[in-house]
Amino acid sequence: MLVWTDLLRLRRAPNAALVWAGLAALPSLVALGGETDWVPVVHLVAAFVATDRLAAGLKAVSRSAAVRRLFGVSDGYLKRAHLVVPATGALVWGAVTLAFTPHVTWVHAWVSVVGAVAVVYRIATRPPLDYGVAAIDFGVMGPVPIGLLVQLSRGPLLLYLLGVLQLLL
Asked: Where are the transmembrane segments (predicted)?
């Protein structure tokens, strides 16, 4: 039932599926442009954006404790059920783009698919931001809330590290 609601959500908002399909050509266009070293990184970022468009149900469930209590099942079960559509979308997207994107091997595609799902999950399940964290003054631009920066980097930092891994592969 939960997977079905995610599929209905995609039918009500078709722009998510259009962006998902439109991003499939991006890594190939970068490869045709001559930037062959950056094709795996672009593949990873495009896979993340495409997968993120399919994760509206996961975000809605993760950010609302009232909705999680309403179903009467464990939080982990709800999050895993709402991860089916983004994970399947990422897997299909990775397989399709692997077929026609030069300079992307199956290892790059696998890192992109698994990494995109992991980053989407980390961003969607991020706890609410705590604005009461301590700020440190480095003397350049005023006080910087280090704890807030760490909270905001929960998903993007993983995406950055996976991009470095794609460059090294």
From this structure: 41-61, 81-100, 106-124, 131-152
